[in-house]
Amino acid sequence: MTAASVIALGVLLLAVTVLAIVLRPGRASTLEFYLAGRRVGVATNACAICGDYFSAASFLGVAAAVYVSGLDGLWYAAGFAAGFVPVLLFVAAPLRRFGEFSIPDFLGRRLGSDRVRLIAVCVVQLIILSYLVPQAVGSGITWELLVGEGVFGLTPYATGVVLSTVAITALVVFGGMRGTTWTQAVQFLLLLAAFVWLAVVVLASGFSYPDAVAELDAEPLANPVLSDGEWGLATEPNRLDPGAPATFGEPGGRYGPFGQLTLMVTLVMGTAGLPHIMNRYFTSPTGTAARMTTVWVLGLAGLFYTLAVLLGTASRSLIARAVPEEPWLAKLTVDGVLRVPEHAPLVLGRIFGGEAGLGFIAIGALIAVMSTIAGLLLASAASWGHDVYERHINPAASQRQAVWAGRGAVIAVAMFSAALALGLRPDSLTALFPSIVATMVTWAFALAGSALAPVFILAIWWRGTTSRGAGAGMITGAVTAIGMFASATLVADKGAGEVLLAPTIVAAPLAVLVTVIVSSRTPTPKDLDRLWLRLHGTAADRRATRLARLTIVGVNGDRSGR
Amino acid sequence: MSRGSLPLAGALVVAWALVYLVTQRVPDPPLEVGVTVLIGVALSVALTVGYPSALRGPRKPRQPRQPGRHGRTIAAVGRSMPLRSGLTTEAAQRAVKLLHPLLGGDAMAITDRERVLAFVGPGSDHHTVGDAPQTEAASRVLARGKTTVVRSKGKLGCPKPGCPLRTAVISPLSIGKRVVGTLKVYRLDDIPPPRDLVEGLAGILSLHLELAELDRERKLAVDARLDALRAQINPHFLFNTLNTIASKARTDPEEARRLLLRLSDFFRYAVRQEGQLVEFGQEYYFVRTYVSLEQARYGERLNVRYDIDPQVLTANVPVLTVQPLVENAVKHGIADKVDGGTVLLKARVDPLTRTTSIRVADDGVGISREVLDRLTAGEDTANGGVGLSNISQRLEVLYGERYRLDIQSHDGGGTVVELQIPLR
Amino acid sequence: MFRQARSLARVRDVRDTGAHSPLSDDGGPWAADIGDDYDMPADVDASFRTVRKVAVGHFAVFLCVVVGVPVLTLTVGWWSGGRLIGGMSPSFVMAAFGLYVFFFVLAVAAATLSNGVEERMLGEQEREPVDESDDS
To answer: What topology is assigned to B232-422 in CATH?
Structure first.
């Protein structure tokens, strides 16, 4: 299977690199490097946000979750999409209007405190790391299946991790955000194209979605487990109805009474605190544009996840049927069920499109990984280079120095996350957490939703928020979330473990409570009116719109004059 | 959502409880769930839709009713008031159609002073709508204003020889003393139609015409009042603002320029002539413009807080009603208070009762009883108070009985003005 | 006589000044157009409150639906046991399609309402007044 796919992969990497170099900003000012000079259209920015957002967790993880748990797996997709609703309602427009570089900078400036900025940097770095690692794991899994062999004496998995990290790091270091904004947008369209293609061929082959659900629902849900060195199918217990087996189309395959709720809350709150997504909002031309961008994102996300769920269902139904005819499936499956559920869309691609189909989907997966890694690295660079280096280490830094500090940070963070990914072989964890990539991403969401989002939303919508309150809130949220994770590994994901694994439902209210209590005991900053004008006023928006209109009139007038 | 929503919620709960009782408890076996839910939903919808119209009250001010002098059917005509909107061709035709069967005549016509507006019955081939009244009798009635009974074909004086009409009763339609038209009832035989009946009906129609005229006059009067308010931009306000701008011109030219732009916005809005109703958003913009000009003068002494529902912004309100309320609050409440105060403008829409409520409150010195009396009586224009009576008169014409304008003022404790108008 | 500093505090995005100064300062043909680039604190506070109402209201609806789905799963048997299309239960249909449509509709509604509120409550008004006085 190698030749064709390796060539395709090479072409892809080449294309991405060329794009990055061609679109490289002429002069590397800090603003250009991090924020694409703030002139990015609504649709482009929406696509770029999707490119950032739809990581391996969405591309492989959602289909895998549906594949493993049926209906209960759908909630990942719903939660990922739902996360943008609070972003739209509470965050998008004011965040853009305030116009700082990054979340820590925003909080630091809004609350007038360097300490808050530093705490936020720490939280942001933790979130980025916990988001980067599953992406690297995802690229490792994809490489393993696509190429199947390593280079330079590395295992296939390690090769995938290292190669993707190196490629993306290079792209970010040399491209900056303008480069990545356009490439992100293009990459998202490729991703979407991959899913649309797969959905079309699947449906064209006579696959009936409702009938497949009915058919899958007819028998209990069983997944492969490794017991005593032998792979065998084990029926999933129904967690809502002890004793009965779980089925594909009914709840209970994955979550007990509260699991679904806690997962939803975690994903819903998390998005508003994801640094690489929030940084994208700073590149919108106006606050109103930022808001409309989110509407686009929600539309695109709805389309994307509908397809992902469809493909998850299709793979459950079609792969089992294809096993007798496709001998290569034998080593990947146990009685017609995939051992690693993340392989589902890839295998489906190969069944319907042969080598080329597999290549296409695999490229989609790698792109999903790469675009997310790029966004994360850039957010990390912005936070190290801008919030730490420029503000604290070397306040007199020239633009050049700041950009290079960011680049250095990118390389360091990328290497660190790759090292972590190499240490976390997915096989060792799948037994504990099915569909490992999606689960790991949940941790990032939980951290973001517990520590960052509550404080962030309060700072925007409550005048009384103070720096001490925000600091205390962030620390409370982060400590609670991490503490609950740590205890979750002891309890596994049964009963109370469901809450422990998705701790936002406890940690976020706690963070809000602490922020409010501490804030009301400390004095608010004095120039709040001035901050509020920037945060919620539309004067700058109107000026930008008017200038844009005048520019268009001027350009057209010049043309007609000649 | 406050006033009126709670009773509705209560009514809904009671309705569902009743449905449950009647379908699930009383019959044995109980009704199916689907049917029960359907009944409940239908009942809820009916309640929710019917409720606001029940609360809204009559849509127009109560019309004076015409006692039916000629039995029930005539009374019905009196109530249906075909000529309520004035003496037009369309209204006349409606009236003729309605009255023709009741009057015991064969043909019937309504004319104004120049033309026949409507004609039904035999003879309509040559008594066509739009022609001048052809009979001599008609011109006599128009001239004298008295009912005439024509007992022979000759006296009717129709120029066309083959005209089948032989006798007639012709009654004048008048507004006050002025005769504006005639009501004619013809017969084909020699017995003329009942004179009393025709005369009485003409009287009713005349009253309707009078009401229509009154409406028109009132509308004109409202326009005049609005024009008066538009013309009445307080000179003190203008002088003070110009002085503020002049003093700023040196110290802060940029702000002086902005204030001038705001002042021009203020005047542009104040003198624009279109319509009685505007979107609340527009009136709000006018308030903001006004407040920013006053704030330049009063500085930190004048604070304003707005509390506005998103739905209010597109609701229509009578033009130049909200700003005068705010202006009164500034002028009578804050201006005389040494350490300044806050004006609160609160605007709400209740979608259930379909009312817009606007409340302007200040914590200023309060308005004394005499000033309040003068404000509401409409005498006070000299010292710059914006006549609340002007506003309330316009509201009355626009909404009849369906508006509320309350003022509460405590000496030293601030003033609250509350305005409620129907949402449209 | 009184302090004026607060009344017309100018909103200025520090990083953007370079972009607009050439036009706003030379008093060219557009000078009158560019008079509107500041907000009053009271106006901003008002629009902030109203937008917050919009956001909280929509969020409440959103929360009701998002929490309602798991609650229905636990309480109403028909929700996960019934069959709507083929083998799909109402719960499945909701999770696979309905929620996305709902999110999108909610997003469009909230975004247009917030934009409308900000447009009407801040900056100049450009629309003409409506005249419906004749219908009474």
So the answer is: Heat Shock Protein 90 (3.30.565)
